[in-house]
Amino acid sequence: MHAPDPAATNRGSGEDELSKRSVADLLKMMVNNSNLRHHVMKQMLQHERATDVYDTSFLDSLMTQIEQRNLLIERAVAQAEKNASKPSSQVTGNDIHPTPPRPLVQEISHDFFDDIEIEPPTKVSASSGSQTAHTSSPSASYPASTSTRQDHTASPYYSEIISNLKNTFKLSSFRTNQLEAITATLDGRDVFVLMPTGGGKSLCYQLPAICKTGKTQGVTIVITPLLALMTDQVMALKAKNIDAVSLSSGAFCGETTRDVESRLRRKGAPKPSLVYVTPERMQNSNSLLSLLDELNDSKQLARFVVDEAHVIQSWGRDFRDAYKELNVLRNKWPNVPIMALTATADETAIRDITTQLQLKDEVKLMQSFNRPNLSYTVRPKPNNKKQATHEIATFIKSRHPNSSGVVYCWSRNDCEEVASQLRDDFGLSAHYYHAGIDTATRPVIQSDWLSGKFKIVVATIAFGMGIDKPDVRFVIHHSLPKDMDGYYQETGRAGRDGLQSDCVLFFSNKDLMARSSMVQNDSEKSAEEKERQAAALRAVATYCSNEVECRRTMVLRHFGEKFDPANCHKQCDNCRKDGASVTQDLTAYAQRVIELHKQMSATGSMIATGTLKAVFKGRNIKAVREGGYQQLSLCGAGKDLDAAILDRLIEHMLHNTSILRIERVARGQWTQNYVELGDQADDCLKGRLQVCLAFRDEDIGSSNQSYSGSSIGRQRPAKAPASGSTRPRESVDANNSFNEDDLYDDNDGDPISDFEPIREAPDPQLMGTTSLSRVPSNASFAASRPAEHDNTDIDEELVQLRELRQKFAVQKGVNCEEIFEDFILDSMAAVRPKSIDELKGLLSTLCPNEEEALVKLDRYGKGFVRIFAHGSSDSLAGLKSTTPFHSSQLHRQYDYAP
User: Fold this and answer.
1) Cα separations (Å) of 492 from 410, 482, 673?
2) Which CATH number does the domain housing residue 666 bear?
3) Which terminus of the chain has fewer CB atoms gathered within 10 Å of its CB, N or C?
């Protein structure tokens, strides 16, 4: 069937919807854009008559696509004209060796967006023996170029590369940095590729794997983290008649692992081009290691590829020890080139990856992280689960009816509950996906979603690795992401076709505390690793609580990229707000941070960022106690400052070099961040440099967002510290203790209640509460008050906790807060202690006075525990503490196998 010609004879009323300009654009797009052609043909097949594709709704959709592309072209032209008119005196180092820009629209293209050169030409930077190509947005900040970009069309491999591109992969052009990566690996170089989600990473190693030229030839070994990812890629390659195999448990496409190994060992037999393995098989299979030795000896081992390389840092530190052993690649086969690819890595992660893999003289290919078609929004998450799902459903129906999307949850139970409610209660086409689904069913669910059989997949965060669906219109985080890297990668699965897409994150303090508690009980984690994960989670917390700054700016800054908020074009909730902001001078707090750093560094120790914050807040945690920092006069100097505001303050001071972030390698393996005083510290102390932050003015203006929701928990401007004593209190309040931890990339396991409760409680201020002080402003409640809160939006167990507290208060004739404060009840609801011992452990970290905590435990403990014990006897004799959680539990829950 051929697509109808829009410029032919009259199609009826539909033709009136297309202007002459749009008709021409549509024709060009259908010729040059395979995604649009597929979309048009799909619409035709769903109608009885071809002309039905020109109904109003379809035309509206096409008009939107056309106009968005026209806008991108106009912006690119304007930028090009602006650069062309720049006076010679303004030419920067990056302009010394200009690269001729590609035409805005080429004659033939696989993807229309690839041919709209919105960003400056790719630049090459050489440093420390590494060749680095950066492609950045106009506002990005990267190292200046020191050499011109190489002409890869002159390489001896170019002819075969182009032939394979067109004949095997059915593509007509390369995306940014693909040709550079392919040429470098064929030349025998180590390559590090940082490419945004949807940028085409897999082609960088799949195409050279089938090339017969190149300094190294033979089999390409691909190490990948997930079995689902492995299966998808092998099947896709086989569909292109590429010989790809998987060395995983069980038979695959009629070929067992033994069959594959036999074929690889047989002399003279054709070898597969790509062999996919898990890191566990690399670590545990002597047979595989022996096989690789044989291939190497016969010069048939072309290269090693580490896909999703960011997991070397995030999982290698945690629960997949095999990732720490990948240095075997360089140690055993030093002359075999290595390619590492990821969509998500900041400077620290890049250093960890290249160090662990022992890359040498590597070519680094990196691009801007900006995804201009994605809109970022943070919304408060109702405590009531059904209400949270209701808000998600309302958003989908109002913004993206009949569109594809992903809703991310962190547990199996959440996935199944949310999917069921979206389907049964709201009539949305949704299905769940998690590692608990049997291996035969998972690919069926993936295929049904990819084909559009159902629209919404509710999944744990591992879903999406390597799955390429261009028309995902929304990504919703029902649960809090583990870190900003994960958030970026998960949101990056939206809008791969370049069209407008929404990324919505639902935040709640309860989620934050629950995620922290699950990791705090991991006995296998080192203090350094807990501190690293704490910092990662705090970064997400700061992002969520900041209701003033452009969210795109915050996301890109995390990866070391500068961005002008004016270029956001109201593509985030903060930039869409009409309300005015106010600037607050926090110089006095900044000065105290600097003075505190001087006191702490006088001991000769290096100061980690998290430790500096903890001492400034006066928290009673291990790092503070062991460092002897409780005795410092400035310990607790920032106790009255909201934790989220403190995070923003420290980030601001790092940004303007009052404090400079430095990096050191801890224990010879992983990079640990420390801080030292920067070159403007003295200027700040002497008052020559002001430190100011912007806050949303609650009394001026209002948001005009149609789906922004209410406040996330506003940060009120800080009050300057009193000019008297430098230490607010003599003692450190254990209530503020927070050993801030994080989860793994995919919990994908049991509900929160299956884990032991926290030993060091999360700080209720972490996400920016409505007060600078820990104690709520309405802390006093009358014992006889009939109801403390409106219970419509809080969980049933929290309702029961508050009702029980009120009963005790009436009996004792005291205020409710004298039984247990609100934040203690919130912690109970999050942790769900099922025994007296568990509640004792919780109270010991929440209550500043241990003796008082024991008295309260004796008086009220049994009643509160009974709420979570589900009908146990009054004696509670049968209750036992749950087994402490540690990372080995995830081995049998997670989606991989050796």
Assistant:
1) 18, 15, 26
2) 1.10.10.10
3) N
